């Protein structure tokens, strides 16, 4: 299995004032995050608002990330869809563009049967020349992949990892390495000896999350100090509060595309207060 990293940030997609993809801001943010704890990126995932990107924008961002990546970081291209033919096409193109792995979510909305899920991922894996990271997030897809199904999927060549966002399923799976798919599961996943997490809070507290990897004796104490970061960033649908936090910290990431909307006044003040508590922002209001 390839080494994809430990602190993998599901990076936001910056937009300009006209809500066009801001490529310069994306590259600047990627390099900032790499200098502050991240050793990999998921590009065009949920946090990257992939559902509102055209395929041209989506693949263009992946190409940009591969071309401009900081030294030593991995690029995992979001390539999932609830249309198998579309997932296959995105996977093929992402591989051609030079990603280290692809992230492929359980088909959502149409909620296929177990046999349908197996057939879907068989097609995705056959289209891939790199490792496939499954993405199990039943809160968004409406379908859970239990661990016995994940073990079955692990028998398919190139299916090597799972981003596990269902806390109830967080356990060793024969044939798969596990990435925490929720920041609150990161410490538990590391304690299991698994490679790490695909994270959101690492946009804000990357150095502390890196310390959780490098200082296992302090892991849970650090995690306890970050609980309010995790909860604040998910006060409302992601990446609303993450983008608000980044903007407050001076990173040009812009707004969100509908149906996502920017943080309201109360949400922004909650984000500001969290940043102040962690010494990331002074007490001066914007």
Folded structure, characterized:
The protein has an eight-stranded parallel barrel, surrounded by five helices. It is globular, with a radius of gyration of 18 Å. The protein is 42% helix and 13% strand. The longest helix is centred in the N-terminal third of the chain and has 14 residues, at 55-68. The protein has 286 residues and is α/β, with parallel strands linked by helices. The protein has helices spanning 23-34, 55-68, 84-97, 114-127, 138-141, 147-153, 186-191, 202-214, 219-225, 227-233, 240-248, 265-277; strands spanning 7-10, 40-43, 74-78, 101-105, 131-136, 159-164, 177-180, 196-199. It has one domain: TIM Barrel, CATH 3.20.20.
Rounded mean pLDDT is 97
**Per CATH, what is the topology?**
TIM Barrel
Distance between the termini: 46 Å
Q: Count of DSSP E strands?
A: 8
Order of helices and strands: EHEHEHEHEHHEEHEHHHHH
Q: Under the CATH scheme, which class?
A: Alpha Beta
Largest sheet: 8 strands, parallel, barrel
Q: Based on the structure, what is the oligomeric state of the protein chains?
A: single chain
